[in-house]
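Protein 1 of 2
SEQ + STRUCT:
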Amino acid sequence: MPSTFIIFAEKTTLTMKITCERLRRAYSEGEALAIYNEVKQEGDFVGFARQFMHNEDYRVARNALWALTKASNQEFEALQAMLHEFIELAMSAENSSVRRLSLNLVERLKMNEEDLRTDFLDFCFERMIDVEEYPGIQSISMKLAFRMCKFYPELTDELKRILEAMEIEYYKPAVKSIRNRILSGKYK
């Protein structure tokens, strides 16, 4: 009986360490990794994500999402049920870091034909060609658009037309590379 209480007490203490204030102050890769390790010990990636990813302080949301990007592919399976929540967050985020990190999480999740959302595909099309958007968001939007378009040949043709029409001199090397790989058939 006492050992059960100790385990419960340790679990409660562990959960109490991750607070909005702590996430607000996490500025290094090491801190993000430490937060991830605590969530891993707790084993509640979904609860952690839902508790912090919509925080109105973008630093809290950003750092929670950053910690989630450290999860292994096996641990990511637990987050699969949140695919559409991450998509909604990416499309509604005003902060570019929150947008980029939520798109990174979406990219790591499985996406099937029944997950195809035209609003999200349109969002990715807009972000990938927007020369005002950050290159990381442009690149990941291009990758996600390609993944969604693979389900339908007519969408793949539309994507290729959009990519071919891009005035490529306005884009950074990372964006140019993804674009060229998709157009040449080397991106899978």
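Protein 2 of 2
SEQ + STRUCT:
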Amino acid sequence: MSGGDAPDPAPYVRLGRLATQVSRLWLGTVNFSGRVEDDDALRLMDEALDRGINCVDTADIYGWRVHKGHTEELIGRWLAQGGGRRDNVVLATKVGGEMSERVNDGGLSARHIITACEQSLRRLGVECIDLYQMHRIDRAAPWDEVWQAMEHLVASGKICYVGSSNFAGWHISEAQASAHRRNALGLASEQCLYNLAVRHAELEVLPAARHHGLATLAWSPLHGGLLSGVLDKLDSGTAVKCAQGRAQALLPALRPAVEKYEAYCRSIGEHPAEVGLAWVLSRPGITGAVIGPRTVGHLDSALRAGRLRLDDGQLAALDRIFPPVGRGGPGPEAWAD
């Protein structure tokens, strides 16, 4: 793997209540297979591992700009290079997205979970997936059916842990209650949308995850580039990701706050992307953040953010720019007298 002058390695923490050690930054791969050329993606994975990031997060549907499953295939190519890559990586993927127009080729039926896992293992070229995450809730799938499939995969050595993504707080509690009735470990983690601009997870998702001992991973910690200096990038014509998607969808409503945010970051001499990511990593109950770098420069910026410590005054200033939901904190106190 590559060398060179790298920042200090990312610190490691436990995966929630469990013993496995994970870096606080997770390499997200949603930008691979379309926004990042394959050779550049292979280099990014090497650079991330060299810098101490030991978690690679993907999903079976990623790569849809080429074809669904392409990103898992790309990661499989990277792992197949050897050099300790597989041994040093906590490998996470997701199930539940619609893989085709065929009936039953999506969701969380036992049939699809088992079939999709076999296909992910084949694309990744591995015998076991470390963290197998349900990409979203499937209200049609009974928990007994879901856990039956997951227990089969654990018992057969094809997955180590089960995680969730985009669950509500009550989904987490319901999943855990069902798992405990089966004397099963249940969920290891929840991956949720969380950043300065979108703080709904503070109401119930983060409290539920903490109560049940789940690791909580924030995806889109900069909200698709909205918090990465979007206004300066748009003015200079250098905007890429932040000129589209969720960043552009939310910018009209939040433009006054984003203007204040970028001005505040300039006043303290820090880059908006690093402030936004540092804020997420500072939040109680947050195990780590899933980043989606497209360049090594983005990767180094994320690692600098991991070392940035915001003081109480700076955190209070950010709360004033992007207030929490309701009165702040968990529900029902956030909205009830």
